[in-house]
Design brief:
This protein is of the alpha/beta class. It is 42% helix and 17% strand. The protein has a 6-stranded mixed sheet with strand order 1-3-2-4-11-5, sandwiched between helices. A 5-stranded mixed sheet has the order 8-7-9-6-10, with helices on both faces. Helix 4 packs across helix 5.
Amino acid sequence: MVKIRLLAVFIAGLSALHTTPSEAQTRQLARVAVSTATPHNTPLWVAKDKKIFDKYGFDVQLIFVSGGALVAQMLAAGEIQVAAGAPAALINLVAGGERVALFLGLSNTSPFTLVTQPSIKSAAGLKGKRLGTARFGGSSHISALIALEHLGLNAKRDNIIILQTGLDPERMAALEAKALDAAMLQTLATKAMLAKGYTSLLNLNQAKIPYQNTVLAAKLDWAHSKAGENFTRAVIEGYGYVFNKENKQAVKEVIARNLRLRNTEEAETFYLEALEELDRKPYPTLEGMRTVLKYVAEQNPKAASVKAEEIVDTAVLKNLENEGFFDKVYGGKK
């Protein structure tokens, strides 16, 4: 197989820049591909920045890769050890015969809201209109399909044109230019557009629709190895650092660097969003995965044979909980 190059927009904290050759040789290299720069990645950023991964013997490279499909290809090719992204492309891998474990739920709810032009106040107003998402098969696209069904709509039947329109900033600009009638937007972008008079037709988080938004995934053998267990321990310690209120300023500094904000104070909203979206015990959910599987199977019939129980793998997290690791990390606080 031809090696897939690590196409990255940026590499967060490349370890080789900060370690001597002898130090690097004593730690295990783990490449982690992240498909979206969002606050629910904060435990990963913190575990890297605060050298928690180092504590567990890892030389971790966090690599930003645009698009879940490419992340899935990299995982299948062995170019990365861990994928952090939407599960849809990973499900397609499993449908193609790969043995993949979705072992941690970074985001267990959809952060998207269906935002429309100010003139559209009801579901009926979306008929025949243009709806913007990011890449087809990604989290915003699946969230759009879920939102339409929840509203009693069907894209094909109701002539709703779903368009790939880039990330939140591009979708916001397209709404303002009236190139879109509606768009799926995440929390911060939604707040900005609502302040300008645009309509929130459906907030998927508030609607309590089960949805597995983002996961950590690895090949099954790696996830169940000692390396996989130690990696999970490091990530959970990252969660503990984030949820410790005494670390608020330090966490905001990490968020500001990774989101390339102008200053730490701009990270306040993202910090609060992370606290709201992250779970202290980040088990991926079977119910949320079944929702994703339903919509992936509509695009890829092979995915219909994949069961949530086959890919949601909570064995390592359960072992950690049974040994009291969560209590140790959170100091007994729930």
